Amino acid sequence: MREAVILEAVRTPYGKRGGVYREVRPDALLAFTLNGLLSRAGLEAGKIEDVITGTVTQTGEQGANIGRLAVLLAGFPAEVPALSLNRMCGSGQQAVHFASQGVDAGDLTYAIGCGVESMTRVPMFSDIGGGFERLNPALLSAVDLIHQGESAERIAAAWNLSREMLDAFAAESHRRAAASRGLHAELLPAPGLDADGNAITVQHDEGVRGDIDPVRMAALKTPFREAGVVTAGNASQISDGAAAVLVGDREAAVADGLRPRARFRARVVVGDDPTMQLTGVIPATRKALKKAGMTLADIDWIEINEAFASVALAWTHELKADPARVNPWGGAVAHGHPLGASGAGLMAKMLTGLEATGGTFGLQTMCIGHGMATATIIERL
């Protein structure tokens, strides 16, 4: 029987908007990451049977099937196909799901699930030429689609989350990310530029701050509501980055001398309230646990994407999760959220964390625009 396993997983350090990757095209960043993935794994590119790429804003430098363009730019054989998908913030995670499902089905022996986003060079919403006002008027009259920031405000109100609670969570995310700086074996040092335009090798996530000034944090404006609680400080950073996960059939991989590192216990995607839109992580987690025949107490490492602090806190409260197991090395508030890349990047980070701590089971879940969520449970081998 076929069994999909993770063989290697990498991500670039994430850059801030206008930061170290400001002059790096996203297709080049992904090509660099794909080559780095296979170099670490020790697998020749010709054995890859599909490259599934998550990218949210598919226009400009991220259009024209960026996955295929990156494969060609990386120098892979022309016979290696690729596609690009958009499940919004869950795109990279969905790419890993599709890659592993193809292996489990027997259609693929080796596949890559990856993602890339340059939010500097291809701004959000540029694929639709602006904001929600560009959507179909019939849709907008039927469904109350709002900015995710307003959804985050409504979640904070529904779960009685104060500004102080959100800011404290954000500060802790930075503290954990800074404390874990030397532990991220999944990081693939990447070429970039410093503030003066000098060529550098980017070694760490650019947005992580070792010290958070609580006074400055408390002074940040609340852009979505005049007396709101959501700020740029307790929301995910706008970022650039790429990530990739190599998946293969376990028996074939062992025969080729590769080491299986994890297997999949559950892969799910759910739809949820499109107005609250970020609460889907709750039913997605419950569905994944049910599929795996597990409880949250069985999970050693949890990655919930910190799109907003209110999402992670509401999820933690609703699932009665141990905060120490939730984003132990910080999250997107600190290291950033390059939309299409984050799902594969969190997978790589979670696998590294499990290996570093001797944990067995990891859960990853991500909220998604328009009311969806993805969730994955892996077992370290």
UniProtKB/TrEMBL annotation:
Keywords in alphabetical order: Acyltransferase, Transferase
Alphabetized Gene3D superfamilies for the sequence? 3.40.47.10
Coiled-coil regions listed in the entry: none
Record has Acyltransferase as a keyword? yes
Task: Return one GO MF term.
Answer: acyltransferase activity, transferring groups other than amino-acyl groups
Which residues are in the Thiolase C-terminal domain? 259-380
Q: What CDD domains does its record include?
A: thiolase
The Thiolase N-terminal domain sits at 5-248
Q: Which residues form the active site?
A: 89, 337, 367
InterPro entries the record matches: Thiolase (IPR002155), Thiolase-like (IPR016039), Thiolase_C (IPR020617), Thiolase_CS (IPR020613), Thiolase_N (IPR020616)
**In which family does this protein belong, per the annotation?**
Belongs to the thiolase-like superfamily. Thiolase family.
**Name of the protein:** 3-ketoacyl-CoA thiolase
Organism expressing this protein natively: Deinococcus marmoris
